[in-house]
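Bumping with the actual sequence this time:
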Amino acid sequence: MRLFLDTSVLLAAAGSAKGASRYVLEHAAAQEWELLTSIYCVEETDRNAAKLGPRAPAYWRASLLPRLTLVPIELTFDKVLVFPKAKDRPVLLSALGAEADVLLTLDEADFQKVIGRQVYSLQIRSPGEFLIEQRQAGHL
């Protein structure tokens, strides 16, 4: 399964040893999840990780970033897509362009409340929702 992680998930994983975001990153290999993100999200995480405490930037760079596959930043899409949040458009388009199965985000107001829980074949979930669904399906 291909999971695209947006900046909010990367920051949550870097800033807290507990929680669904960290769990997804630390258990991806065992679950055979391919973790995707874009340089756009990496750069946002780099800029903001220090706000989470003195250990977060080093943990992000040394432990979390190597687990990710970087995909190209997509700025256009060949299907109709109406999404008003300009700063989040590269995240959504990159996840669609990478043919991710799920976009994991903690920005519910910017994604799920604006465009719903699915765009074309891409599901949009929080890490917690995703893990609950995986457990209910018997995958965890």
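The tokens above came from a reply further down the thread. The chain has one domain: 2-136.
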